[in-house]
Amino acid sequence: MLDHGSGIPIVLVPGIQGRWEWMQQAVDALATQNRVITDSLPSEPGSIASINAQRGFDSFIDWLDQLLVRANVDTVALCGVSYGGWVAVHYAATRPTKISSLSLVSTPSPNWQPPSRIERYLRAPRLMAPVFAASSPFRLYPEIAVAFPSLRKRLRFGAECLARAVTSPATPTRMAERMRLAQQVDFASDCSRILTPTQIVTGETELDRVVPVDSSREYLGAISGSQAVTIENTGHIGVATRPERFAQVVSDYARRTIGVNSRLKQVPA
Fold it and tell me: 90 vs 52, 104, 231, CA distance in Å?
């Protein structure tokens, strides 16, 4: 668990790889004006929790409950990145009184179904891991090139990412387990119950080669009153390529929506 900075408490939920360290740039940028609370996903090394087979995807609910208790906070701005957005959606639907605002960053559609490529990965995560790792740079390089026009800066960014992947490695079997757990949840139904102020944050349409922007923006029709924000000059990994802009988007929304959700909760169902 990491609890860093002071100000409005913002909880960051990592993506499918599970390690909070992969969001280090975003954590540092957010912590200049906010209190950032985060942790690696359950069952990752250093996480405060583990996946409970009987609880399934609700293990993430238990994990976030524990995170808030340890941080001694009752209400937080919640931000989920990619897969972490699904966790954030489910938590906002299940624990509405604990969330002051919700930011979903490059999150797959609430109606997402795994394509054949992902199905193959789920069947044999260890075997397919080298293929996944080899193809990732080709998907991400276009946005890295736009975010860092200088070759020197691109190389430095790539070296930092490689170092982080070595020191905080993702585990293929745990990633596959998370995808299977997500298939247990009706995220569309979750969305219909969310009254929390929500923003849908994406990169540019032509630069996100991981989660199509149109997929993320399906939340605009699924969560009442939600709004869209684009982080320019990046695609799926704006938390790393443009952390200051990401921090501004999340921080500004957290500040604007303080108190709004408490009023919404008083509206009769």
Answer: 16, 12, 24
Q: How far is CA 102 from the centre of its chain?
A: 11
What is the Cα–Cα distance from 253 to 236, expressed in whole angstroms? 20
Residue 199 pairs with which residues in a beta bridge? 103, 227
State pTM to two decimals. Answer: 0.91
Give the number of other CB atoms < 10 A from CB of residue 267: 7
Distance separating alpha carbons of residues 217 and 215, to the nearest angstrom? 5
CA distance 152 to 142: 16
Count Cβ atoms below 10 Å from residue 168 Cβ, excluding itself.
Answer: 18
Q: In angstroms, rounded to a whole number, what is the distance separating the alpha carbons of residues 122 and 128? A: 9
Please give the chain's pLDDT, 269 residues, in tens: 999 888 999 999 999 999 999 999 999 999 999 999 999 999 999 999 999 999 999 999 999 999 999 999 999 999 999 999 999 999 999 999 999 999 999 999 999 987 777 777 677 766 666 666 666 777 888 999 999 999 999 999 999 988 998 999 989 999 999 999 999 999 999 999 999 999 999 999 999 988 999 999 999 999 999 999 999 999 999 999 999 999 999 999 999 998 665 544 444 43
